[in-house]
Amino acid sequence: MVKHSAFFSELLANADRLFNLLNQFETVNVLVIGDLTLDEFLTGQVERISREAPVLILRHEFTRQIPGGGANAVYNLAKLGGNVKVAGFIGLDAQGDALKHIFTDALINTHGIIIDGDRPTVTKTRIAGHARQSVTQQIVRVDRKSDDLPTTELQSKLADYIQEQINTVDAVVCSDYGDGVFTSPVIQAALKHHQVIVDTQKDLFRFAGATLFTPNLPEAEQAVGYSIKDDVTLQQAGRDLLKLTQAKRILITRGEDGMSLFQSFGDHVESWHIPAFNRTDVFDVTGAGDTVVAALTLALCCGGTFWDAAVLGNLAASLVIRQFGTATTSVSEIRTALKLLLEEGA
């Protein structure tokens, strides 16, 4: 149980509002711009060592394909009930087709996905093997991607699509994994919306003026240029990040130490801390940040406060880190988890 009496008092006081926000998620329209990645998992049983080279030979058992990178943010929003439009690039390849098919099955609007014939769909293929009655282990990962940027023509085409959709959505999410989507024309188009949530790994200043940034602790430290080691440096980092990004809000995710929220009110900055809801059943934190962004965005669009949105984002993340690999959760699971959390707090 999370033992923070002041936090739980506030949680109990606002419980009805949190449940009401969850009930409204399906009314929200969101445009997600992202570096679209396909995560592949190939699994097989070890048969023997190859005669051709000192490597294992696996008998293939199954292949699993799921959205990764910025595509995971897209998929999380859809699984939480949001009405989602996606904008980004895929290659003219089977991996791009697979990713688009996954989106279509999840009722995600894919009209903003542009095919780039010169670059492959970003794909991360993890090959894992096991002997009989043994644990499956990852053996190697193969990445397919290009370090080249999209052509200026494709950049403009994506920016034009974003511009066309600005007035049809309640928020724009930028999920930046550094794979070439976020060129200057695309960023400028995205920032024309009044509510822009940015999840980027570096160079936050590129999105200056966005509504909210959600760096994790290492990303925040890289942005401010110093270590965040105590409450003093944490508070300073929050203020410095608000100044650097010209944003209204900053949320720093801190793993087992929870989340820290900073909001600018003119010359005054207010901060809150939300404890981690799950510090023991942690199996894989892959993609947890995308889950935070998804629940947070939907809650804000439903009229939730920054605190409300962060609590629901934190709770959603506490569920997906219990699963191996990139995972999603649902409103019903969050609702159940919130009920259990309130019972513990009571």
Describe this structure in words.
This protein has helices spanning 5-13, 15-24, 70-79, 94-105, 152-165, 184-190, 217-224, 231-245, 288-301, 306-320, 331-345, and strands spanning 29-34, 36-49, 56-69, 83-91, 109-116, 122-130, 137-144, 171-176, 196-200, 212-213, 249-253, 259-265, 268-274. Strands 5-4-1-8-9-10-11-12-13 form a 9-stranded mixed sheet, sandwiched between helices. It has 11 helices and 13 strands. The protein has 346 residues and is of the alpha/beta class. The protein starts with a helix and ends with a helix. The model is unreliable at 279-285 (pLDDT under 50). Strand 8 (171-176), helix 6 and strand 9 form a beta-alpha-beta unit.
* Widest beta sheet: strand line-up: 5-4-1-8-9-10-11-12-13
Number of strands: 13
Main β sheet profile = 9 strands, mixed
> Which percent range describes the beta-strand content?
25-35%
Q: Give the end-to-end Cα distance, rounded to a whole number of Å.
A: 11 Å
Rounded to an integer in angstroms, the radius of gyration calculated over CA atoms is 21 Å
- Extract low-pLDDT stretches: 279-285
Strand and helix map with partners:
Blueprint: H1 5-13, H2 15-24, E1 29-34, E2 36-49, E3 56-69, H3 70-79, E4 83-91, H4 94-105, E5 109-116, E6 122-130, E7 137-144, H5 152-165, E8 171-176, H6 184-190, E9 196-200, E10 212-213, H7 217-224, H8 231-245, E11 249-253, E12 259-265, E13 268-274, H9 288-301, H10 306-320, H11 331-345
Parallel strand pairs: 1-4, 1-8, 2-6, 4-5, 8-9, 9-10, 10-11
Antiparallel strand pairs: 2-3, 6-7, 11-12, 12-13
Helix pairs in contact: 2-11, 3-9, 5-6, 7-8, 9-10, 10-11
